Amino acid sequence: MMLYVWSDPGTIRNGAEVVLRSINHSEQMLQESTDPPALDALLASLASSEIPESSCALLDNAITRLLRKELHYENIILGVLREKDSARSSSDCAPFSRLLAALVEQWPFYARLEQATAAEKAATARTLSKLLRYCKHLGEESVLLSHFSDVLVNTSDEGDLKDIFCTALQPIDDDDLQKLAAVGAAAKAAGESKDAAMVSSELSPEPDDDQELDDDEDYGAPAQLPDPKALFKWDGKDLQEAVEDGDISDLIMCLCSDILGTRVQALTGLGKVVQKLQHSSYVEQEMITLLLQETIHTAKPIIRTRPLPTYVGAFAAKAVLVETNPQHFLYGTLNRFLHRGPVWNVDKVPMIQAVFLHPPDIDNTFHACTGWMLEVIYEGLRTSEVRAIDVFPCLELTLIELGRQCLPAQRSF
Questions:
Q1: Is the pTM of this model over 0.85?
Q2: What percent of the chain has pLDDT over 70?
């Protein structure tokens, strides 16, 4: 946030804005239901050379508290709605940005901060006042805006600060409208530039190595980077639907991304999924929770230095779908594997020996079990991560077993 505020328009500010939008989309600190979204309002409020460092400190503190105590601020918002109208709930109101509740709560502590000068406090108050004004313009819940505006007035001891907050919900002027429009235009231009670059890269042929392209066509292209949209696809869906539609599996594969930020967001997202599962009535939640917890414990020590190996991510992603179906041919094998310990050895394909070197739980499912595991290995081979010493002895024994089963005496038609 400080990088965005204090940098000049250009690559650095644009990069900071992309990060802010990604984080907000993931955490929903500022509502995105309106056009423009509330993050534009915050950025427009900060578009001033007078923003002191202490303002950013207040904002950073409020964001940290909101992320740590989401339920606390949800209860504050719900309490205000019920106080004004006992029949109302948060689902009945217009969009509202939860970050406002945290900022208003922390304002009295900031107003008494000795390290901040009177001028800095006034500048911060103007920023908060402008943010409220923008949120009213966007159509956020008027009952909540009015309440929090009153709280700011009542918790400001100095007359100048009270005067600033008394005008918080007045209509925005043309200058403020232009700032809001400029933020939206910059975001749109950055998005179009990114889209154009992607289209250009897709249309541009590889410079020299035609033979390499032919090889890719024959043997399959290298594995694609996980789609960043997978970080957010699951959010907002019914949990069971997100699991069974493969959205949670796609989120797991983001742990294999070459981009550190994507891996960290994926790990955070999986933690949220686990929390929701633990409080859900989803019938299969217990084993899916265990699977995701082991995935998190396995990935956490390494993802800040390198991606989770693709074969490990592919195993976990496919295993989620196994756990949704107790009749699956690998259900018992997978559950025994998960109960062995909380962390997997990332130098080996998880559960490979249990599948290749032991008979299946259900008769006549040998081919299905090996086919399932071969798909996991295929994903790893496409990124050159599977170690031959771990995989190929198992493959050799599997081929021998397949040959034995294909002998005429063993055939069953």
A1: no
A2: 76
